[in-house]
Amino acid sequence: MRIIFVLAVLTGVTGSLNVTVKPEADSAAHPNSVPESVEETEIFGQQEVLVEVEAEEDVMATGELNPTHYPAQRAAKVVQHYLNTHYGSPYRLFGLQRVHSGNAEDVADSGRKYQLEISVQEIISNTTGKCSAEVLFPRGERQGSAQVQASCEEFLKINTKAQEEALYQQYKMNQSLLSAQHLPDSYGHIEPDMKPLWHLGIVASSSIMLNESTENTLYNMAQVANITQLATENNQLKFDCHILLHEMVSQEIIHWKLLFTWSPPEGVKVLQMEQLPHCHDCEKPPNTN
Question: Which of 77, 126, 152, 263 lies at a 20 to 30 A Cα distance from 120?
Answer without folding.
Answer: 263
